[in-house]
Structure formats: C-alpha cells, structure tokens
Design goal:
single chain; Arc Repressor Mutant, subunit A; elongated; mainly alpha; two-stranded antiparallel sheet; 4 helices
Length: 89
C-alpha cells in the first residue's frame, strides 16, 4: 500500500513568512491595520475600537491590540530619536 500525502503545507514556514496576522477575528482586523492606525494617531484601545472595531465583540483581542499599540509607539519614538541624533551629528 502506497502512502499518499494529503497535505504538505508547512505551518511553521507559513507563520515565519506571513506578513499579516489577524488580531481581532470578530471585526477582521490585522496587526498591520492596528499599526497603521497607531501611526495615524490612535494611541489607546478605545481609539481602535472606534476606528477599526477592535475588541467590540468578544474582547479576546484587547490585550494583543494594546501590546501592538505599545510596541508601535515605542518603535516610532525610537525612530524619531535616531533621526534627531543623526541630524544633530
């Protein structure tokens, strides 16, 4: 009896190569959409709730959304600091 491969999908590779992750399944919001909203001025969860509908359904995504807000704000502040230091030099 010959074995047949039903699915050769490599989940690990897909996760590493994937550039989009859904954070809020209820509203279909991705991490990229949250980052873009933060860069546009949304810096609190209620801003994302109003603009994207994040965490207005089951609320399971709230913690992940807040983490993305924090890291995006931190990355943005770091980039601003590096830009100022490079212009000062």
């Amino acid at each position: 009896m010959q074995k047949r491969t039903i699915c050769n999908y490599n989940y690990d590779t897909h996760l590493l190569d994937s550039s989009v992750m859904y954070i809020c399944l209820c509203s279909g919001v991705t991490d990229q959409q949250i980052r873009e909203a933060v860069k546009a001025g949304a810096n609190e969860l209620h801003d994302l709730q109003r603009s994207l509908g994040v965490s207005i359904g089951c609320g399971t995504c709230a913690e992940a959304a807040m983490q993305i807000i924090g890291t995006t704000l931190q990355d943005s502040a770091t980039q601003d600091l590096v830009a100022r230091l490079s212009h000062a030099a």
